[in-house]
Design a protein that fits this description.
2 domains, alpha+beta
Length: 220
């Protein structure tokens, strides 16, 4: 009976070790994805649909990778799973570039936290998560990169479209729109109605074009 009892104790110890390992990895993964998605992404974009998607893909990806990590397919399995998620496209909405970046992070975190070997140690796993978290925070919140935004407007001062009066046109557009317009492009000029469809360009730290596209997708 002693060999059987010893075997049972060994299995119980192995199960407890696996459970502790799972809980630790899942806790790290959930904490980091919560900070990135809820505290970094959501306050700026306020898009609940993507918030749900990022959390769901991250958690499901983590569970799949962890539960199948015992198979000797770790590296190939990780790249194959990542490739499957990478080629996904939403049929109903166009995913903005920034959302695709956060989607990439959510998938990557699930793979890293589930498949990092125990030989590499939890310290390295925590460092890798901190690096991803720090890079996302610095790039998205601290690097104040200027965007050149544009808007299409119908302009009724047809007398100002001449090249020699471009400065007057820019000053008029700045006054009317309240935007720091620095250049314009003509789309169509209608001399019959004395109007012109133009694109006005202005610099801002906020990407208004991406916000407008995201809002339009939500309305649809």
């Amino acid at each position: 009976m002693e060999p059987i009892e010893t075997l049972n104790e060994t299995l119980t110890a192995a199960s407890a070790h696996t459970l502790i390992d799972f809980a630790t990895r899942f806790g790290i993964n959930l904490l980091v994805i919560f900070i990135i998605v809820r505290l970094l992404y959501y306050p700026m974009r306020k898009n609940r649909d993507f918030l749900f998607t990022f959390f769901l893909f991250n958690i499901i990806n983590f569970l799949i990778c962890f539960l199948l990590s015992s198979a000797k397919l770790k590296m190939g399995f990780a790249f194959g799973l990542f490739a499957i998620f990478s080629i996904l496209r939403y049929r109903t909405v166009t995913v903005p570039v920034r959302e695709m970046g956060y989607f990439f992070i959510s998938v990557t975190l699930g793979i890293i936290n589930a498949l990092t070997s125990n030989e590499q140690g939890m310290l390295l796993l925590v460092i890798a998560n901190l690096i991803i978290l720090g890079v996302a925070w610095i790039i998205d919140h601290k690097l104040r990169v200027v965007h050149e935004n544009y808007k299409e407007v119908v302009y009724d001062r047809i007398d100002l479209i001449a090249p020699e009066r471009r400065e007057e046109m820019l000053a008029d557009l700045k006054q009317r729109t309240g935007l720091p317009v620095h250049r314009v492009e003509f789309n169509r000029i209608d001399f019959f109605r004395d109007t012109a469809r133009i694109y006005i360009f202005y610099n801002d730290h906020r990407n208004d074009s991406a916000v407008a596209n995201s809002a339009q997708s939500d309305d649809d």
